[in-house]
Design brief:
mainly alpha, 2 domains, 0% strand, binds zinc ion
Length: 90
């Protein structure tokens, strides 16, 4: 069995400058640029996750507010009980 290793050039065209390095085996990029592309992808994935978490928190907050509003309309005052507890500490 013969393995032919074809030396491909790095396909990096990032900031308008072509890379003259040899690409990593099984990759289109040299070690340096492979790392840069990988980091970019990770940063983007992380930001997406942050936005998703923020949206979830926002949804929970509006759901919570809606639930509180419903309770208040039913005559329950959530603030009252909380402040009673603090007053007793004085
Ligand atoms: Zn490169």
């Amino acid at each position: 069995m013969t393995t032919t290793v074809t030396a491909t050039k790095c396909q990096w065209i990032g900031e308008g400058e072509l890379c003259s390095h040899t690409a990593l085996e099984g990759s289109s990029y040299c070690a340096e640029h492979y790392a840069r592309i990988y980091q970019k992808g990770t940063a983007r994935a992380k930001r997406k996750k942050d936005i998703r978490v923020a949206n979830t928190v926002w949804d929970l907050e509006s759901e919570f507010n809606a639930a509180v509003q419903e309770l208040i309309e039913e005559g329950y005052d959530p603030a009252d009980e909380r402040w009673d507890a603090e007053v007793e500490l004085e």
